[in-house]
Each structure stands twice: as C-alpha cells, then as structure tokens.
Amino acid sequence: MGMARYRLQLSLNNQPEALGKLILxxxxxxxxxxxxxxxxxxxxxxxxxxxxxxxxxxxQWLLNKLILFPYFKSVDLMSIEVARDVQ
Amino acid sequence: xxxxxxxxxxxxxxxxxxxxxIPGGSNLPLYDALYDSNISSILMRHEQQAxxxxxxxxxxxxxxxxxxxxxxxGATNLITGIVNAAMDSVPIVALTGQVxxxxxxxxxxxxxxxxxxxxxxxxxxxxxxDSKRLVKEFVNAYNCAYSGRPGPTLIDIPRxxxxxxIGELDNSDAIPDPAFLWKPKLPIDAELEKAASxxxxxxxxxxxxxxxxxxxxxxxxxxxxxxxINAPIVTTLPGKTCIPQDHPFVLGSVGMxxxxxxxxxxxxxxxxxxVGTRLSDRxxxxxxxxxxxxxxxxxxxxxxxxxxxxxxxVKLIGDAKLVLNNLINKLITHGLSRKDVEWIxxxxxxxxxxxxxxxxxxxxxxxxxxxxxxxxxxxxxRSAIVTTGVGxxxxxxxxxFKVLEPGTYITSAGLGTMGFGLPAAFGAKVAAPDRxxxxxxxxxxxxxxxxxxxxIVEYNYPVITVIFDNRALGMVRxxxxxxxxxxxxxxxxxxxxxxxxxxxxxxxxGVFTQSYDEVRMTLRRAVRNNDAIVIDVPIDKNEKVFPMxxxxxxxxxxxxPPGFDGHGKISTxxxxx
Lengths: 87, 577
Ligand SMILES: Cc1ncc(C[n+]2csc(CCOP(=O)(O)OP(=O)(O)O)c2C)c(N)n1
What we know:
- The complex is a heterodimer.
- Chain A is 28% helix and 47% strand.
- Chain A has helices at residues 16-28, 56-66; strands spanning 3-13, 32-40, 45-55, 72-81.
- Chain A has a 4-stranded antiparallel sheet.
- Chain B starts with a helix and ends with a helix.
- The longest helix of chain B has 19 residues, at 342-360.
- The radius of gyration of chain B is 24 Å and the shape is globular.
- Chain B has 25 helices and 18 strands.
- Chain B is 41% helix and 15% strand.
- In chain B, the strands form 3 sheets. Chain B has a 6-stranded parallel sheet with strand order 2-1-3-4-6-5.
- The complex binds thiamine diphosphate.
- Residues 389-393, 416-418, 442-445, 468, 470, 472-476 of chain B line the site of thiamine diphosphate.
- Thiamine diphosphate binds at residues 389-393, 416-418, 442-445, 468, 470, 472-476 of chain B.
C-alpha cells in the first residue's frame, strides 16, 4: 500500500487531553503532520482540519482508533491525494 | 456535600467493593470520604502493586478494579500497572490526587502531570478542574474502562476540587455521557457470508484465541465453532485463560515459547480464525510469514486491530461472543461439512510425544521446572486461580500448566512486567476469597513486589507463592546463553537472600523444598488449610525453556528441547501439506 496525503476533519472535546491524544495517535501511527487548523466550534468543542502524509493502512488505523476514544466526536476522511513529493 | 463524598456515594451505587491504594496529601479527602463508606480500602505497600492488585481483581470479577494514589510520586508509581492493564486490555480506574488548582503548573511540591504521562496508554484520562463535574467524570471513566475493548482510565483530582461543597447528587450524573458508553458494532452480514464460504473452501482451519474471548465470555462459542468444523484451538498468552485445556481440540499456546503442536497447528493451517487477539509478534512471529500460504479471518471488537499487524482476508468487527454466534448460525445454514479430524489426532500425538519426553527426563540432582508446574496443577482444585511473574517460570507455566476452567490464569502478557504475579494474585484472592490462588513466580520477579506479602497477612487473603528459585534472571540469562555467546552479565542473583526468612519477616510461612514430594506435600497442606505460604523451589540456573522460536523468526524455526526429535516427528506425522 502506498503513501498518500490525507485531509481529515475532526470534531473533538475542547480539552488539552483530547489534543494531546490526537498528536500521540498520529505519532503512534508514524504519520507526518503537514498542516493543522484548529478552531473552537463552541466552548466545549474544537474543529480540526489536518493534512497528513502516510501509508494508507496507517491512516485507516488512525481513523478506526480515534473513534474509540471519548475525546473525539467525529472523524471524517475528506480527501486523498497521492502526491509525488510525499516521502 | 463535598464533591468527593458524592463521588464515593456514586462508587457505592455502582457496586464498587474495594479500592487498592496508598494515601498522601493530595488524595486524603478521598480517604476521608472512604472512612464513612462501605467500600473497603486496602493499604498496599507500593502503588505499582496497588495497580496490579486492581488488575488481578478486575480479571477475576470482569469489572473495573479501582486504584488510588496521591499526586507526584504516588501517581508516577502507578504507571507500570496502568500500562500493563492497557497492554492486556484490563479495565482499571485510577484515581489520583493532584495539587490544588492554584498551584497547578507551578512545579509545586509533589506535582506531576500524571494525565500527560499516561495519556498514550489509557482509554481516557482527565484532570477534573470543575468540582461539579467530578461525579460525572468518575461515572464516565468507570463505564469507559469496561465498555467495548476494556482498558485503563484515570481521573486526576486536585485536592481542593475534592473538598468543594457542591450540594446534592444530580440525577443526570448517574448516566455516562454517550461517548463513554461505547457500543460494539454488529458484524456485517456480507462479511459473515464471506467468512462462512472461506471456511467451507479450505481443509485445515485453526482457531487462534486471544484475551478478548475472556471479557466477552465467548468460551462456549469458541468450543462450539471448533466442534462444528473440527478445528484445533490454540491460544495466545492472554488467550490461555479462556479455554479449558482438557477439551480434546485444545492444543495450548502459540508463539515464541508456544507448544510445538500449537505452533504446528498454525504452520499447517489453510485458514486461521483469530478471535480477540492483536496478533502480536510474540504470538505469530513475522506477520509476512504468518500471512504466507494461509487465509485469515480476524474477529475483534476494536476495528483498529484489523489490519494493524496482519491484513486479514475477512474482517469481522464486533464482540467475540456475538460474532461467533452469528458465524456459527451462518455455517449451519450453509450446511457445512466437517473437516478431517485426523489432523488434530496427529497434532495430539506430537503433544503427547513432547510431554512424555519432558517427563521422562530424570536427573536426581535437580528439580525440573516443568515437573513442578505439572505437580502444581495436580495439587490444586480445578477452580484455583494461577498468576505468574515474568521469565522462564512464566513460560514453563505457559507450556505445562493446564487451564481447566475459564478465567483461572492471569499473566502479564503484553508488557511482560516482572513483579506482576504476587500483587495480581492478591487482587485475585480479594475478588475470589473462596478460591485457592497460586502465584508461580521467579526469584527475580518476586523480589520486585514481595512486600505484598504484608497485605496477604494483614487482610487475611492467603495466597500461595511458589518461587522457581534459580538465583538468576533466568530468561535474560537464557538469551545471553543462546544469542550472546554465553557472555553472562548482570543476570546472576546473590545466593545469600533467604526467601524463607524473607517470608517469615512478613509473617508468612516460608518453606525451602528439596524434592518433588516435599513440594507436593507442602502445597497439599497449604491448599487444604487455605494457608498463605512461600514455597522456595531450587532450580538449576542453566535450565533453558524449549521449544523456543528465536526473536524475529517464523514459528517453524523453533529450537526443540535438546534430544527431542521434534522435527522428525513433525515432518513425518504432521506436515502433509
Ligand atoms: C520490570 C521488568 N524489568 C526487566 C525485565 C526483563 N526481564 C524479562 S525476564 C527477566 C528475568 C526474570 O527473572 P525471574 O523472575 O527470576 O524469572 P526466571 O526467568 O528466572 O524464571 C528480566 C529481567 C522485565 N520483563 N520486567
């Protein structure tokens, strides 16, 4: 399975633990974070858009894993692009 | 009412019976609330031991074990126990005291960011800064620990949050937030169809059982499936507890120190049905080899496990019991023909040959670990619970201890935590005081957590410990022997430590044994009287555990016990593929 660039849309608790867990899971999956856009949707909820490079099976793992933790409300894979410059 | 008193009241309502821990400045309000509660508290001697005790308790009760520690060093001492619980998917809830809110973030006395420290390894951890949220956070963490795939959670509570008056319990606090009540997915019918057709299309199917079967309570479904299709059952290390080994289809554990016949059942299979296992390297060897030449159906409640280590041909997401029931129904409607049972007979021949060979080894000058393990099985009731430390003795127990009733074997599998055995045994005894609990330990492992002996006496939860005393960190010594040219470095333990005196210092009887008969009679007496005892059994430090698959190698590359012509037997009687 090849490398690709993924855009994820997440809704998560506005808690440092939630952000911490997100980064730790990206680390565990050995994915690289290219861009992160995080905004408060309400005092309790953050919306995050992430651009991530990595292997498809690892992204799949991340998507499946994130939803198991109560910190995360929703996770959607928005787009995939197989970029030539993705290492 | 103070927030912490309301939380303790809620714990009582949820049926919490016991909490393992150690008090300190930051969790004192919790202890003060426990003073007036019917929840018993057990004062451990080290927080790591408290976490392992909660772990042992949880595995027996199949409900969360609760542990508490103060801020700073108390909390950091919990970490090994928390990670151990995560690796073996055991529900424990840790309640840590934290410095008061005004001091948080100032490197205050005994301040440690315990949430940050455990975050990679827990299902949920949070610091509660709003006292009105405390009860709800506990209810959430409690539910989260056991719903879906079980695991540890942690609630970190600043002392002043515990002490704030918040009025009365709000009814809405009783119900966990929906995100914490994780409902497993239902298996997809098309995938079940695919699985059933795959099973129908192959000759040799092996069922590989992991620890997920324990918390799911899916033992009878596994047996039913095996009987329906004539499939041998093998287990991972955590899966060993799930399956009674006196069933004729059960062949024992696979992996680095797995039984030859169990590994052969994988090697010679056309299809493996893996249930509730993460297919770790210790169990299956390199994933590419595991995948080569066979199909895989993977059943797990945690979708992220499917494809993480091995990409399966069929993914069945859901609770093991439910998925297996659905699969069995599907196979029955398919009108499935049974597989050839001769294969299992051949694997059983190999099993008998290995056992006969090992039991025929006679050397009057020393006691053999495998014979001691067999003797323990003979002397304790079917329902007795066995725990282990980590090392060679653990692997001998894995090879020779036969689980007869589900849920009676507790070991630190994923993390391999030396020192797990005794506190886990204590926690198991607290959960099941009417059952015999035996800790099979190594002298190295035992010395890491032996203070739990004082709890055994103080709270009168008698546990039997059998120390496989080789005066060495035996397993590491074995690796230095086999893979580092016998350059033994820091693996021999002093001859002067006296385990009999050590046990007696804690108020537990200690017995040094020199013959199988002595071990047998001492054990028999302790079982009969339900006594706490430490039985010190001398073992030769040069004894090595075989079979062994060298690290990173495929299961077929095993090293057989010296002198056992496993390969000849296997190639003539088993491998016919
Ligand atoms: C806490 C911890 N430290 C180190 C290790 C590495 N280790 C694995 S087995 C082992 C030796 C265990 O010795 P002992 O408990 O005496 O058991 P034996 O192998 O001799 O049966 C060691 C040091 C470990 N698993 N856990």
